[in-house]
Design a protein that fits this description.
Protein name: NAD-dependent epimerase/dehydratase domain-containing protein
Oligomer: single chain
Pfam families: Epimerase
CATH topology: Rossmann fold
Strand order of the largest sheet: 5-4-3-6-7-8-11
Number of helices: 7
CATH class: Alpha Beta
CATH architecture: 3-Layer(aba) Sandwich
Organism: Endocarpon pusillum (strain Z07020 / HMAS-L-300199)
Shape: globular
Largest sheet: 7 strands, parallel
């Protein structure tokens, strides 16, 4: 006999709240969840309406208007609307993914503090108050000091962009919120289909110069290395991180013993991962 909708192997599937659900990573996470029927209920929260988000056809169902809520998640006044379940249930959301925040470079520091730091902290406090099982924060690998070697969680932190400095500030603030079941993913440069960011522009530019058999003059030498991760891999990693955090109220003793103290985690009830 097949499982009922919202149930897998006799167990209710998790309910999911995605902040920044129409952003580049958010829409791919929604598509991954929809395609694999991973949740019982999902809500996408964004300041941009689906009709204005330039969604490709394959995102029509995963990002349907019926599961969308337009709200500014950096405002305390929006929390009740965002966290209330659409069916009127008083149960908290199981997984909350924070994929919101300012991603454009060269913004004023106050912009990042409002749209990234305030957003993360406001959401984190509400998630802790409501007993969310897993709060997944998407941060950036640019919080680390530059190095030729792959970064580990405990490596030196030295963000040099204002965006990265505020992401690190948000991490530190979240790690101090009592009762927050936090996991942080420090992402490399994300690329993939429909990407309009730095990696996509660089690849397109390189292909044009290759076709024209011209030399592409760059500010750096061929020794420059840029770490990347495909957006579909990010979606899977986000889901796996939430699943792991939901069943680990604290980091397992063997894992905690093997890992030195993280610079942004004075309590070992949080976790950071770099991808």
């Amino acid at each position: 006999m097949a499982d009922a909708v919202g149930v897998r192997d006799g167990v209710e599937k998790p309910s999911v709240l995605i902040i920044g659900g129409l952003g580049y990573i958010g829409r791919f996470l929604a598509k991954y969840i929809h395609t694999n029927s991973l949740c019982s209920t999902v809500r996408l929260v964004d300041k941009v309406l689906p009709q204005l988000a330039h969604l490709a056809p394959e995102f029509t169902e995963p990002c349907h208007q019926s599961i969308f809520l337009q709200a500014d998640a950096s405002r305390e006044a929006s929390m009740s609307r965002i966290f209330e379940r659409p069916d009127g249930s008083t149960k908290p959301w199981d997984y909350v993914f924070n994929l919101g925040g300012e991603t454009a470079l060269s913004q004023a520091l106050e912009v990042y503090k409002l749209r990234s730091v305030a957003l993360s902290v406001t959401l984190g406090r509400e998630a802790a108050r409501r007993g969310v099982k897993a709060f997944v924060e998407a941060s950036t690998g640019m919080v680390y000091a530059p190095s030729r070697n792959p970064r580990k969680e405990t490596d030196k932190l030295k963000p040099w962009l204002k965006l990265a400095k505020c992401k690190l500030e948000a991490e530190e603030a979240l790690s101090k919120i009592p009762g927050l079941n936090l996991v942080i993913l420090r992402l490399a440069h994300v690329y993939g289909e429909y990407d309009a960011g730095f990696i996509a522009k660089a690849l397109c530019l390189a292909r044009v110069y290759q076709e024209q058999e011209r030399e592409l003059k760059w500010l750096w030498t061929e020794d420059l290395r840029i770490n990347t991760v495909h957006v579909e891999d990010v979606a899977r990693a986000l889901w796996k991180a939430a699943e792991w955090r939901a069943v680990n109220s604290t980091i397992p003793a063997d894992a905690a013993a093997a890992a030195p103290e993280s610079p942004t985690s004075p309590r070992r009830s949080g976790a950071q991962f770099s991808t």
